[in-house]
Design brief:
4 copies of one chain form a homotetramer. By secondary structure, chain A is of the alpha/beta class. Chain A is built from 9 helices and 10 strands. The longest helix of chain A is centred in the first third of the chain and has 14 residues.
Chain lengths: ~260, ~260, ~260, ~260
């Protein structure tokens, strides 16, 4: 892999995000219904954010948990995308969904549970969309880069890595956010890396602190979960920012930007 | 899930394995060529073992590592199966391979990296073959049982769990074999559980000790890697038993059986 | 360190325990009062066990938890030792207690929390008593052997190692019992190693299974917690065997012995 | 414990450090000789830092590794303290050293290996000096706070906590710096908490990034290792900043301060 740093994190005809800009992605854990997604999408767009996350196909540990709205979820995401001029980031869990996703999704996400699903990586590598590759719960930094290599060697160089915490004995957080991975990745790979403090910590009360820390550690962006009514969220309510606290975080990030190095 | 213990681990028209028998599975990490597989298959069969493992589709961390012989590997496995009257256990990495596997494979293995690939679990649940479900590197016992529930609730109750070690800070072994999972699973689930000391430890010098310990802890069987020439194996040579040390282990297991409770 | 295996695990004028015998140690987490200790000591002795454990100085995470009876606890242990002809195994937490311990204690235990308290190791190395050195929660096997080297190089070669589990993400057990450490230690060190399944698992329902598995893995002995009334124990009740289940375990160990190699 | 936040981190007749100031501590892993310590102390002082770290009694995993200059090291620290008007932070490993330390040391450090050495904590609690309590390798945040409670309940409320990384499976860093502990501690405890990125990461190339990230996460200070000639350091050379890179980090911290909240 060429280790020269890429200046552009992600590029679309109408939006180019450079490392200097930082890539900010926000939205709910999952698309629950049209009203929910539109309320959140509107707030995200008002904050100046252009990338909306939201799960349609949800990989859930418990087979009896809410599995996502699936095709219907994608349709709602597409509508929100058009109405609010937002790019859609959502997780793909099976290669057979690729045609469906190509119609709607701007950034394909490979979730932590699928980081080592090499068959999926090989198939998604052929897609002409950027890919957000999340670090597995128990993946080393080297294994994350190897997984990215499945994408790059398969033809897709628009890979964005995402640190989202690793499993440790600590139970105060859902996972242990390993921010050291950020400067390490930047030393050995040209790929951009962003941080997801929502899934890592599982606690909305420290998401903002860890988001800012991630940026100062060198992250090229942040992905956070936002919900207009976290206690009623169908998944991950404990880690979702309210619309107000999300706006505060966006303000804090703007305030911090002059300090950040490119 | 019904918590009454199943007496039969796995059942075929010509072979029934009960908990009292224990399920023993052996073979190489991957099918390398016809000669290699046949030499190992012959030795396995001579030891009285009826289940041959061997990878055809290999999920490898590094995209440039040997990825398995794939369809050709399945064909060699089928031939060995017929010649030596062995049942074939091999890993499926993508749902699109199901028809191919149904023609050759007696027990479908879901590997550790795919334990939380719920999409694959849902598809494989529809297959009328027993499924060997390996614990993920970083999966809790509860998550292993939840993954099994994807199979059971999807219609396949012939699930065999497999403890194969979890990731910890210890570097003397490849993973840390968590034998406590064996008696715990047996207390809360009717599913059989076997132990894979080869992948857990990554060291052939302690595989036999841990295999015997696993059986005494209550495991319903053992899966081990065997190779006629471990230093030349295309993968996992360090953890493969030689044919001689494999025969010794089989003898030790026979000697231990009177001490095991059903 | 000389890697020739020691045949004798521990030796006193009246009791010699060889590897063939195995070293069995049992008793309560802590000495609570004379009546409690005597009831348990009597049952331990009746089972044929000659080594009684019991904490007098307890290192507790919470400063407001019961800290042990201290000097009074030692006095009760001494009395029980004389009445039932038992050797006493108890933990020393500070070098200043050495003279006090030398009067009462037959085997000095260094607890998991103090395995890397090198100052304590250096002081205890000068004592002419066997030392039971427990593996730290987060110590590698190599670090355990290095800690032992503080004792051996300090002049005390009567060291007995003890595997008691390491910290991992798994929450079904208190720690993860790493039985692989047993055969590994035996390959690289002449020191005996025993297993403590009580502290490792924290669950009395799997202690016997893991004790037997430990012996089959090659352990030179077992240490377990026993209490005549576990629900009322002042500490670690959940992991203590009742007197009845303890007697069953002793019977199981006797039944297994012919299978065990020396 | 009173959860009202303390405004003063540490206070001496001539120096008061508030949370707004942040506490910066720098120096070598160990005192090697007078010339070494003086060169580093001079550079530390020139950077405006008033707290010098340096080990005199070193807890080393290997008994044959350099164990520190001990009393001679304390004497050199005292001399440097006087010459450069620096406060001395050094680790105490045994309660019997308290009188010796009281004569020289301004902040008593309890190292990670001794966080759960409750006997030492109880003794040091009686000292009228601030105590820097490092988180154990495998201690949860709750256990760190419980260890602090041994100090506070023992009479010493001048406790400063220190996050220094926990043990995980990741091998790219020496430990995994758990910066989430910083905002969590601040929500549930009035005690200040600083970050030690040198011991956590073990790599000088990411120490500055993680130091800045720690401050943004809310840390009340930073402790880093500095050496005038890292490749020749008797311990921890790989993680020591050079005098130049240390000065750069101090400059970066100054540049960051306006963005930090109090």
């Amino acid at each position: 892999m060429n280790t020269q740093t890429r200046e552009i994190i992600v590029e679309f005809p109408d939006i180019v995000v450079t490392k200097k800009d930082r890539l900010l992605i926000a939205g709910p854990c999952s698309v629950e219904n049209r009203d929910q997604l539109f309320r959140i999408a509107e707030a995200v767009r008002k904050s100046g954010i252009r990338f909306l996350r939201g799960g349609a196909f949800k990989p859930r540990t418990n087979p009896y948990s809410f599995q996502g709205l699936q095709e219907e979820g994608l349709a709602i995401l597409k509508e929100a995308s058009e109405q609010f001029e937002l790019k859609i980031v959502t997780e793909i869990v099976d290669a057979s969904h690729i045609p469906l996703f190509e119609d709607t999704v701007d950034i394909f996400q490979i979730g932590a549970r699928n980081m080592s699903n090499f068959h999926l990586l090989k198939q998604v590598a052929r897609v002409s969309r950027p890919i957000l590759l999340k670090r597995g719960f128990s993946a080393t930094i080297e294994e994350l880069l190897m997984a990215a290599e499945y994408l790059v060697s398969g033809g897709n160089t628009q890979v964005i890595l995402c640190e989202r915490g690793i499993r440790t004995f600590e139970t105060a957080t859902r996972a242990t956010l390993d921010l050291s991975s950020v400067p390490i990745v930047k030393k050995i790979s040209p790929l951009p890396i962003i941080v997801d403090p929502s899934h890592a910590t599982g606690r909305s009360d420290i998401v903002a602190s860890m988001a800012l820390a991630g940026l100062v550690a060198g992250a090229d962006g942040i992905m956070v979960e936002v919900h207009h009514n976290p206690p009623k969220a169908l998944c991950d309510g404990l880690q979702s920012l309210t619309l107000e606290s999300f706006q505060s975080l966006v303000n804090e990030i703007e305030r911090l930007k002059p300090f950040l190095s490119v």
